[in-house]
Amino acid sequence: MMTSRKIEIDAAKGLGILIISIYHLVYRPENGISDIILCECIWLFIPFFFLLSGFNFKEGRTISENINHRLKALLFPALKYTAVILLLGGIYCIIFHGYSADDVLKDAVFTYLRPEFSSMLFPEWGNTGVLFECLSPVWFVWTMILSFLIFYPAEQYALKSTKSLCVSCAVLLTAGIMLYGFGEKVSWSMTATPVYAAIMLCGVWLSREQNIRVSIIPAVIALAVHGVMYRFCGNDYAYASQLGTVGRWSVIPFFIQTFIGGYVVYVFCNVCPAVITKVLAFVGRNSFRYLMLHGIFSLLGADIMQTFTKFTPDLWYVENLTPEIFIKSLMVWVISVICCTLFCVIADR
User: Fold this and answer.
1) For the segment 226-249, what is each residue's pLDDT rounded down to a tens digit?
2) Number of alpha helices (DSSP H) and beta strands (DSSP E) in the chain
3) Does 123 have pLDDT greater than 90?
4) How far apart, in Å, are the Cα atoms of 142 and each of 138, 206, 248, 276, 285?
């Protein structure tokens, strides 16, 4: 990977995490044009983050060294952030939201085990609370760790040659097709992890290509193609093993669209004004922090604005969307992004 392209890759990550936070926090008319665009972006950016993880992968380490690196870079920080949020957020919710200690404990269990497992173990507990909703993006961390556990052994063979890469991707996609449909029985996208591992393998291969051409016309065509693929094959619940509208075969277009849409994002981050690229790159370098923290900061913003926190699908749309609700939710998103940014600036000092 060329050093001069690093800022564009970071910018792509930043753009992705900002759109994901908009998707989580800003109300919009259900099935309206803005909603369709955001849902299509989620269908792209979930696997796109795995592509970038492969792109940034440093070769030459042993499997044990790679696993140790990921535990330190992902799992341990995730446990730290969630523990602090559950503790301080729990105290906050007890004081201002009528929470009990049992409610905080319940949200902690649902956060770490995910609702699919928790509902089987504790069916009498019912629904989760606001703290879990703020921490629900943690599923992405668990999924990435599980995907890397598949990726690390596979890359030992897959990256020997283009033929080995194709064979490995075919095996992993076949596994994804066979596992499709188990989403209700297992949690945090375990059934999609072979597909994500295949995407990461391709990301490593792309990082070896030193001449990824930036061209606006092909990017516009790719954008149109991606839109058509989402219209006929897509589903924004990609992480829940509901990959699309054509059943188990949705695994294939889901895999392909990552590279088509990814090229669009790459071109955008190369041609947009330098100041925007730098801002997005800052967010991208801190994307993990934004992922973990934007929910809890949105809760604080929602309390300040006396509006709603919007993390669960049941609350993503309101029956009567008024301009006031939309504006307040947009302001909550702004507050959340500002707070995340300030946290990153302070933490880096």
Assistant:
1) 999 999 999 888 877 778 888 888
2) 14, 0
3) no
4) 7, 25, 23, 31, 20
| Helix, strand, coil share (%) of the chain residues, nearest 5 | 80, 0, 20
**Please, are residues 45 and 21 in contact by the beta-carbon 8 Å criterion?**
no
8 Å CB contact between 36 and 186: no
**CA dist 51 → 48, 100, 219 (Å):** 5, 41, 18
DSSP-derived letter for residue 189 is T
Q: Name the one residue in this structure whose structure tokens are 């801190």.
A: 286
């790159």: which residue's tokens?
281
Angle at 117 (CA atoms; ends 113, 122), nearest 5 degrees: 100
pLDDT in tens, 39-55: 999 999 999 999 999 99
Q: Is the pLDDT of residue 32 over 70?
A: yes
H or E stretch at 141: helix 139-158
pTM: 0.91
CA 239 to chain centre: 8
Considering the chain, what is the average pLDDT of its residues? 88
Angle at which helices 33-55 and 6-25 cross, to 10°: 140
**Two structure tokens written together for 128:** 């989760």
Two tokens, residue 114: 């995910």
